Amino acid sequence: MHTIHTHVINSAAPEYAEVFALREEILRRPLGMSLHNEDLSRDHTDDIMVGKADGRVIACLMLHHLDDGQVQLRQMAVYNEWQGKGIGRQLVAAAERYAAGKGYSTMVLHAREVAMGFYRSMGYRQVGDMYHEVGIPHYTMEKDLHASA
């Protein structure tokens, strides 16, 4: 397993351009979409967790405040060549520790159908039925952050 350096940035940080490029390549281009056509206002209020290796951003996710107890993990992406090496697992674990440290008790996310097994293996449970987001099946999943502490 490769170890990455994780830290939190905001949209004013120099790494944000790398985060944007990563999300565009992994999350939007394969769907024939572009972040350039989306409302990115949440990017400016979210905490952005980056995973870096060899001095560049190779993984990212966004943490969006929902209420005093809940935070939403969104827009998680890992470059293809780094997938399957434990990078996503390290990034999500770091995000959970960060969110718990900020006082959140529950992490919520909208998982693409293909990512559900990954999140289940990290202790997330499905809440509700399938729905479509960005044109593909998703499921809401959540995790009690205090149960894993």
Give the count of helical stretches: 3
Distance between the termini: 23 Å
CATH architecture descriptor = 3-Layer(aba) Sandwich
Main β-sheet description = 7 strands, mixed
Strand content: 35-45%
In N-to-C order, the SSE pattern is: EHEEEHEHEE
Instruction: Indicate the structural class.
Output: alpha+beta
CATH homolog superfamily: Gcn5-related N-acetyltransferase (GNAT)
Strand arrangement within the widest β-sheet reads 1-2-3-4-5-7-6
Which key phrases capture this entry?
149 residues; alpha+beta; Aminopeptidase; seven-stranded mixed beta sheet; N-acetyltransferase domain-containing protein; GNAT_dom; transferase; Bact_Acetyltransf; acyltransferase
Could you explain the architecture of this structure?
Keywords: Acyltransferase, Transferase. This protein has helices at residues 16-28, 87-101, 116-121, and strands at residues 5-9, 47-53, 56-65, 70-78, 106-112, 125-133, 136-144. By secondary structure, it is of the alpha+beta class. It has one domain: Gcn5-related N-acetyltransferase (GNAT) (Aminopeptidase, 3-Layer(aba) Sandwich), CATH 3.40.630. It has a seven-stranded mixed β-sheet. The longest helix has 15 residues, at 87-101.
